[in-house]
Design brief:
By secondary structure, this protein is α+β, with helices and mostly antiparallel strands. It has two domains: about 190 residues; about 160 residues, P-loop containing nucleotide triphosphate hydrolases (Rossmann fold), CATH 3.40.50. It contains eleven helices and 18 strands. An eight-stranded antiparallel sheet has the order 2-1-4-5-6-7-8-9, covered by helices on one side. It has a four-stranded parallel sheet with strand order 3-16-15-10, with helices on both faces. The longest helix is centred in the first third of the chain and has 16 residues.
Length: about 375
């Protein structure tokens, strides 16, 4: 259940975008063009699967803050729309303001509709449709069953409608989206949990805040019992260094021995940049990678000399998972393009809306040679 493309409408600076998901997708742009909005909109899709999407929008200031605030055509409702397409199934969701007769808090984000479609060749078959609180599902025989008041306006059918036997596609999409992992930043201040020992629990992939970093590294050495690739990656970034992770008395720790230092340094002694790079090692070299990994500006706090090794790390991980990156760094972008066939994903503002240079309305990238000759507004 790896995604093939994503559609976003009316989210912050994004008027409308349809983006393909490739093994490695990298987007670069200046400040203020809406790069972070691409990352956040994908995170909202994961929140739909966990049931937190309305809470996340409320935390961000409500629909008035997160919905497209630019000019609209006459008759447009301005609803926030998100969709993810997988190889054999589609999911879409719409959110809007409460109607005059709906029981809700003023300004509360409400889920207006959700749809799941199964794809059979070129044919799409609607399998689940939710309108306000009313959920309808198609069974194996093709007959529809209706569930009135099955969910509240603040709840997603994807997370809270549990009739998986009637509509197994609900569970398939829910599990697929819940497995997505997002990494925005890692705290490296002295009180950060990354700098402290953690519980010795087998950890196949790093948590979003990195708090189980030592366990993720120790899992590679104690459970997989093979750290050759990890040591090669450490050597690539820090020549002559050696990383060691272990379990002791129910806790996991790690240390880094560098070639020019008389003793190894534990996590609480490492520099911010070194510690963050080790976090990224754990993201991309985990025992089992999530099928989809998104990172927002992973180059932050890293020395420029680490960007080429990071690019090699990312390119290798893209063979095991779909990697989606937003970055400020031209150097990282060029390093990634030298390691993998990454299409140019330059994020720009076009008529006040976030757009991706060279991306057509159908979700295909034009050849770079065509970009100078075609300034039409396909985004």
């Amino acid at each position: 259940m790896r995604p093939t493309d994503i559609a976003i409408s009316n989210y912050r600076s994004i008027r409308r975008l349809f983006m393909p998901i490739q093994p490695l997708s990298v987007f670069i742009g200046e400040n203020g063009v809406g790069k972070s909005n691409l990352y956040k909109s994908l995170s909202l899709l994961r929140d739909a699967a966990t049931g937190r999407i309305t809470r996340t929008i409320a935390d961000e200031g409500g629909l008035n803050s997160v919905c497209w605030s630019g000019l609209r055509k006459r008759g447009e409702d301005g609803r926030l729309r998100l969709a993810a397409r997988f190889e054999h199934v589609n999911y879409s969701i719409e959110l809007g303001h409460p109607g005059p007769l709906e029981a809700a808090f003023p300004g509360e984000p409400m889920i207006k509709s959700e749809r799941i479609e199964a794809i059979h060749g070129k044919r799409k078959v609607l399998m689940m449709e939710r309108t306000n609180s009313h959920v309808s599902v198609r069974g194996e025989s093709g007959a529809w069953s209706e569930h009135r008041d099955a969910v509240l306006p603040s709840e997603t059918a994807l997370a809270d409608f549990l009739d998986g036997q009637t509509c197994p596609e609900v569970g398939l999409i829910r599990n697929a989206l819940q497995s997505w992992r997002f990494y925005h930043d890692f705290r490296t201040d002295p009180a950060s949990p990354i700098r402290k020992p953690c519980l010795a629990i087998t950890t196949p992939s790093l948590s979003a805040d990195g708090s189980d970093l030592a366990a993720a590294l120790a899992t590679l050495s104690a459970i997989r019992q093979d750290t050759a690739d990890l040591q090669d990656a450490i050597e690539d970034a820090f020549p002559g260094a050696e990383l060691r992770a272990w379990e002791e008395n129910g806790r996991c720790e790690f240390e880094l021995r560098q070639a020019d230092m008389p003793r190894p340094f534990k996590a609480h002694e490492l520099s911010d940049g070194t510690l963050k790079y080790i976090c990224l090692l754990a993201v991309f070299m985990g025992y089992r990678l999530p099928p989809f990994i998104a990172l927002n500006e992973p180059e932050t706090s890293l020395h420029p000399s680490l960007l080429a090794p990071l690019a090699r790390l990312i390119a290798k991980a893209s063979r095991r998972a779909d990697i989606w990156i937003v970055t400020h760094s031209e150097q990282l972008m060029e390093a990634l393009r030298s390691e993998s066939a990454v299409p140019l994903g330059r994020v720009i503002k076009a008529k006040g809306a976030t757009a991706i240079e060279g991306l057509t309305a159908g979700g295909e990238f034009r050849d770079r040679e065509d970009d100078d000759d075609d300034d039409s507004d396909d985004d």
